[in-house]
From TrEMBL:
It catalyses: L-homoserine + succinyl-CoA = O-succinyl-L-homoserine + CoA. GO terms for biological process: L-methionine biosynthetic process from homoserine via O-succinyl-L-homoserine and cystathionine. Substrate binds at residues 163, 192, 249. NCBIfam families: metA. Pathway: Amino-acid biosynthesis; L-methionine biosynthesis via de novo pathway; O-succinyl-L-homoserine from L-homoserine: step 1/1. This is Homoserine O-succinyltransferase. SUPFAM superfamilies: Class I glutamine amidotransferase-like. It comes from Vibrio comitans NBRC 102076. GO terms for cellular component: cytoplasm. Keywords: Acyltransferase, Amino-acid biosynthesis, Cytoplasm, Methionine biosynthesis, Transferase. Its EC number is 2.3.1.46. GO terms for molecular function: homoserine O-acetyltransferase activity; homoserine O-succinyltransferase activity. The keyword Transferase applies. Transfers a succinyl group from succinyl-CoA to L-homoserine, forming succinyl-L-homoserine.
Length: 313
């Protein structure tokens, strides 16, 4: 089934070129079906690039998904045209009286910034608190995972001395957990962060189910037992050249970054990187949509109630 997006969204042509079934709003309005409503809060600077990456992952499911784009505030963007933001993005005030099946909060380039110094920190907290009563399942990605842990468990910001950048091997911890259904025992996934997520620390200070970890990168995937909050510390949405773009950018800024681990063939940045994480990225989002959202959400979103949710125990 397709994802439903605004008719003129730039991602539409990109995804159709990849033979992904994208349905325009005008066509979807004539269908008698209850699509899943998913809100994408895009905190990344290059919003067009990021929205395309996430829409690509949301498309690989038999479920019809109606995606709405949300911005954190109305400040001008250096990397996204104002016309694009005004046309395709909503302000929180325009959606806060509605319920949604799913919410995705992206990462943000704020790894070395303290939460209280983030200009929109209070507003982000308001949105995450709102989601408790208006969203079936929220997916926190990379920096947003750190922010979500602060909100839900009051965990302080934990920062690595050096940036974690590369593609790392991960091990699953519970092959019968629905979020991991179909996963191999080990899989690869990219990371690009300063945040520190050690399994020991999360196990000691939270009641989260730790689902997948890396010996080097720490926790990759965790969730609350009712699956209403899912934390992904890496970037399954990244395209094959995204880490390369970040590496070249950091070089140009004189940051002397380390070469991303296990990314370039022969560890040589002159060699074109290959995506080795794409299949598990698609599977993760498909499982989240199915088991955390579709299987849990009420058919009538107006009847949303926390009492509807169950755990695996």
């Amino acid at each position: 089934m397709p994802i439903r997006v605004p008719d003129q969204l730039p991602a539409t042509d990109v995804l159709r070129g990849e033979k992904i079934f994208v349905m325009s709003e005008s066509r979807a309005s004539s269908q008698e079906i209850r699509p899943l409503r998913v809100l994408l809060l895009n905190l990344m600077p290059k919003k067009i690039e990021t929205e395309t990456q996430f829409l690509r992952l949301l498309s690989n499911s038999p479920l019809q998904v109606d995606v709405e784009l949300l911005r954190i505030d109305n400040r001008p963007s250096k990397n996204t045209p104002t016309e694009h933001l005004d046309t395709f993005y909503r302000q929180f005030e325009g959606v806060k009286d509605r319920n949604f099946d799913g919410l995705i909060i992206t990462g943000a380039p704020l790894g070395l910034v303290q939460f209280e110094d983030v200009i929109y920190w209070e507003h982000l907290q308001s949105i995450m608190n709102w989601a408790k009563e208006h969203v079936t399942s929220t997916l926190y990605v990379c920096w947003a995972a750190q922010a979500g842990l602060k909100l839900l468990y009051d965990l302080p910001k934990r920062t690595r001395k050096e940036k974690l950048s590369g593609v790392y091997e991960h091990f699953i911890h519970d092959q019968h957990n629905p979020i991991l259904r179909g996963f191999d025992d080990t899989f690869l996934a990219p990371h690009s962060r300063y945040a520190d997520f050690s399994p020991e620390y999360l196990s000691e200070h939270t009641d989260l189910d730790i689902l997948a970890t890396s010996d080097t990168a720490g926790v990759y995937l965790a969730s609350t037992k009712d699956k209403r909050n899912v934390f992904v510390t890496g970037h399954p949405e990244y395209e094959s050249k995204t880490l390369h773009t970040e590496y070249v950018r950091d070089l140009a800024e004189g940051m002397e970054p380390a070469i991303p681990v296990n990314y370039y063939p022969d560890n040589n940045p002159d060699n074109a990187p290959r995506a080795t994480w794409r299949s598990h990225g698609h599977l993760l989002f498909s499982n989240w949509l199915n088991y955390c959202v579709y299987q849990q959400t009420p058919y009538d979103l107006d009847k949303f109630s926390e009492a509807n949710f169950t755990t695996d125990e």
